[in-house]
Amino acid sequence: MDEGYLKAQYGGDWKYNEIIGFLRFYRYGANQIRCEYWETNAKNKVRTRKKQFEKISDSYCREPFSKTAENAILSQTMKNAVEHCETILKKKKRFLDRELFDGTVDYVDWKSLLSKA
Fold first, then answer.
1. Which residues pair with 35 in a beta bridge?
2. Which residues contact 116 (CB under 8 A, 6 or more apart)?
3. How far apart are alpha carbons 15 and 19 in whole angstroms?
């Protein structure tokens, strides 16, 4: 597409113009990681700057963890959670962009993050 058109219509040509949903991971209770799945509420998935998202599921995955586990184990737990969600999304013909997650997952202090109330 023409760069001027993309800038005028969509704010520019950027990597995530085509986003139709997202995953939100959170700690549930003392020892479970869960994931919410949000998707655009439009029947036809098109480029627009006025997307409205609705929660499709609040328990897309349920991954147990131990607060006393080492960061390497907790990092693997998060990878397992994302892979579980990716498997479900592939059945719906959805693509999960994992570039940022895969590049940072091993550097996050999961032990500290998951132990917070």
1. 25
2. none
3. 9
Q: Model pTM?
A: 0.79
Token representation of residue 79: 């990878």
Residue 32: helix, strand or coil by DSSP?
Answer: strand
Contact by Cβ (8 Å): 14, 21: no
Chain Cα centroid distance, residue 63: 15
* Residue in the structure block whose two tokens are 């996050």: 108
Taking only the tens of pLDDT, the chain with its 117 residues reads: 566 776 776 666 666 667 788 999 999 999 999 999 999 887 776 666 677 889 999 888 999 999 899 999 999 999 999 999 999 999 988 889 999 999 999 999 999 998 875
Q: Which residue reads 């991954």 in tokens? A: 63
The two three-digit tokens of residue 31, written as one number: 């020892």
Q: How far is the CA of 75 from the CAs of 46, 48, 82, in angstroms?
A: 34, 35, 11
Q: Which residues of 14-30 are buried (b: 16+ CB within 10 A; e: fewer)?
A: eeeeeeebebebebeee
